[in-house]
Amino acid sequence: MHILIYGIINSIALSLISLGFALVYSISRVPNFAHGALYVTTGYIVWLLINKLTGFPYPLAILVGIGITGIIGALIYRLVLIRIRGMEISEIIATYAIGVAILEGLRWGGLRGMTFTLPVFIPGSVDIFGVVVDYQRLVVVILGAATFLFLYFFIHHTRIGLALRGIAQDERAAMMLGIDSDMTAILSLGIGSALAGFSSLLLLPLGNIIVEAGYSVLIFAVAVCITGGLGSLMGTIVASFLIGFAQILTDKFLSTHYQMVVALLAIILTLIIKPSGLFGKQKELEERV
Amino acid sequence: MEQLRKERVDRSLKVRTEGLYAISSIEEILYLIGPRLLFVAGILLLPLIFEAAPYWKRVVNVMCAYALVAISFDFLSNFVGLVCLGGALFTGVGGYFTAIYNRYFSFPIYLSIPLATLSGALFCTLVLLPALPLRGVYFAIITLMYPLLFSRIIEALNVLGGTNGITGIESFPDPYIEHYAIILPMLFFLFATRRFVNEDIGLVFRGVKDNDQAVRASGINVTLIKVYAVFIASLMGCFSGAYIAHMYMWAGLSLFALDFSVIPIASTVIGGGGTLIGPVIGSFILVPLSEILRAAGTLRIVIYCVVLTLFIILKSEGLMIYLQRKYHQFERWVKV
């Protein structure tokens, strides 16, 4: 029972982490290696707001934090990526460099040690089938599920969402129909970064805000996205359940240290067996020589 | 209004040196050999120049070690099209292998470094093999993950000295041997790679980068070609890692640190990708800079990344290509 409940919680947390990365890659084909950095940044911004400005309400701080991260993401595209679009090497290096710059900058700016924590939304815990689960984890599950539904509705039934999907499926045809490719890419990076921020605010109250989280979040996101198939949102969710349960099982039977090993093994095994992932939409020929 | 545009014309000297006329007079010969000779002599004389400043003599070694990793990055990314975000994988593996040979099997230093270079390169090639048949971002992702994975595994299993690392590795017997043990291989690898990419197989490498389907259609096994390339690149990286481990007499988790991944990339971008000498120049700029900024802690990585991003978006050709252009061509304003 413990495994089941914590497995579900862990899986939803993983999929929250990776949704932003998957969304950005599926729409604009940019592997946003600054994803982990944005995750940590949001946490830090909110921490600053509620600790340095006395009386700043927590819910408002959350909204501001997510908003700022979204804007940072959009700016990364508008200022940097727009100039190097389509040059794969440069895209990877630039986003990676931005991510590392943000993370190490935060570390230099004083984000060290265990003193940075965010308050949980609802304190306390509850007993579910004999397993103690704190409310924050329940919030993660509920809001996570709500996010999936919202995203599904958003990309299937709104004008902007349809435009995003159009660009993702066939950029040229979408451009002929008057959809601005750069604008949607800016939007997708903004939304993706905001999602990273959102997930960080849900998950960071469970632990400390540390710089290393930025790197591990990036790895988890990449692991989930590759296993699920780059560019497939459905695959992202399924894969996060696979990896999430695998992690909880190793945690239970081996040791916590191996969580990262599980994620990396997932990447390597997927790449060997089926590089397009579980639900990958890309053709085999496009990615394997 | 009169409009002007900038015209670039090859220098007549350059045109003359392209063919057999290159050896027609001393001027042409100097034009060709001069810069290369200056470069090689400058690097060979570096330890003597820094004789006065003992601290900076160590920096010369570090500079050359980073330059070697940078050459391997440049070779992989600009000649084979494999973006390797984890130079730290190579240095870490090389460093740990040499530490194992030297400490656990007590091989002498002149045996442990070459052995570590070879076996480390073999090991790196094997672990990178799964990502090699794939195109796109997969190789970059996997190389980014491996250094992290290995440092986590060493930390978790507490093997190979755990977080303390392996200490007491044999050092170089003499400071001059220490200098030239990295300078000479660096020059060797630099010119060997330059020669190598201009051989027939270099053409295939570039074919893999530009159009792998065409290479495949020619009946060449693309994955095998990539395996060769990764092996050569990891030779350089592992040698550099093994050297650093012997220089500091210590192999620890910091050999898998981000510095070894970021600085070579930054120096390649700044020095000019695809020139192979560019990365060397880039790391000769960046590593001393990093020593000056040592007091600033992780801020130096921030500075690197910002400089790197600015170079990518504003001056993506890099210093070396800029210099080459100035050397070979002159510019003048002409009426449109």
Structural account:
The complex is a heterodimer of chains A (289) and B (336). Chain A contains twelve helices and two strands; from the N terminus they run H-H-H-H-E-E-H-H-H-H-H-H-H-H. In chain A, 73% of the residues lie in helices and 3% in strands. With 289 residues, chain A is mainly alpha-helical. With 336 residues, chain B is mainly alpha-helical. The model of chain B has no long low-confidence stretch (mean pLDDT 85).
Run of helices and strands of chain A = HHHHEEHHHHHHHH
Estimate the global geometry of chain A from the Cα principal axes.
globular
Shape of chain B: globular
Largest sheet report of chain A? 2 strands, antiparallel
Q: Which parts of chain B are unreliable, with pLDDT below 50 for 5 consecutive residues or more?
A: none
- Hey, which two chains have the biggest interface? A-B, 41 and 48 residues
Please count the helical segments of chain A. 12
Radius of gyration of chain A: 19 Å
Helix content of chain B: over 70%
Assigned CATH class of chain B: Mainly Alpha
Number of helices of chain B: 14
Average pLDDT of chain B works out at 85
What string, H for helix and E for strand, traces the elements of chain B in order?
EHHHHHHEHHHHEHHHHE
